[in-house]
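hey so i finaly got around to running the thing on HNH nuclease domain-containing protein from Amanita muscaria. pasting the sequence first so u can double check i didnt mess up the copy paste, my clipboard has been acting weird all day
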Amino acid sequence: IPRRNVHVFSSSNGVEVAGFFQHGGVSISTFIGWINQVCSIPEEWALYPCKFDNNRAADGAALDASSKDELQPGRYVIRTLPPKIGQVLVYLTSEVPRTRAYSCNYTSTPHNTNFVKRVRARDQRCCITGRLVAADDYTGFDVPHIFPLNETDIWNSLDYKRFIEDDQIVPGFEMDSVQQGFLCSSTEHRMFNDYSIGVNPDDSYRIYVFVCHDPSFSPHGRIFYRNLNEQHCYLPSPDLLRDHFRQCILRHVKGAGKPTTTDTVRRFDPDIDLGPGGFDLASGSWWSTSEGKKQLEAELRERLWGAVAQDRMHEVGEVAH
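ok and heres what it spat out for the 3d tokens, dont ask me to read them lol
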């Protein structure tokens, strides 16, 4: 299965500037909206079918940017609006997706157990696949944070605590609010961390899978489960899900959809690069690459956040007594 089945090229140099894997259901207008999020195009432009042997040449009429018709897999090129249909410069945004920590072994990383218990009690199923929890057996189920704990500085600078309405959370611990998490299977947790799967709250909480995936097991197109018997202030925050969805677009739609650093031989693989609940820095040279260094920082920041949060909770408890 190819990594992508939709490819978009710049008419000025023939470089791939956008794309994704179309599983079905992504309209022309939706995809053009994604392109506008990752590309800066100084002229009015349109998307055209692209010739097979020339990344810069159009091979058909411009697509209707407002069309709700499903975008067909294929090759496309960005050129100016008709009738000129000239070349146009396409600039990629400098914004990159946030690095997320992948280690989720709760025995090695301090974790707010109240956060886990509250999310489990609320959801009782994988919110992505719909798989139910049987007899309170949570084997194979995880509780990911929507916004990564390792990016507390960004959380604070953007004042994202304003999205938390949860009245049962201690002030200062909004990142561990029940609105910051959901229950899902371990596989979907990994994909969520990798930004391969996202939830669009502006499309009825529809689930999008951005990469190739076995269609017989794909949750693409499903509606993200929300327990509507709960008050809104205890449900996953649409603002945080929207933020995560943007990271998915930056990771998998922008450019060629793969690392651009020259020293990266391959992408991060938690099963290889992380030992059981920890680091295996002797596993090879990957950790010395630029992506490896960023990932190491993310892993350490999440552990530091957990340790600091645990100490602060003890302090709060002592003050309360």
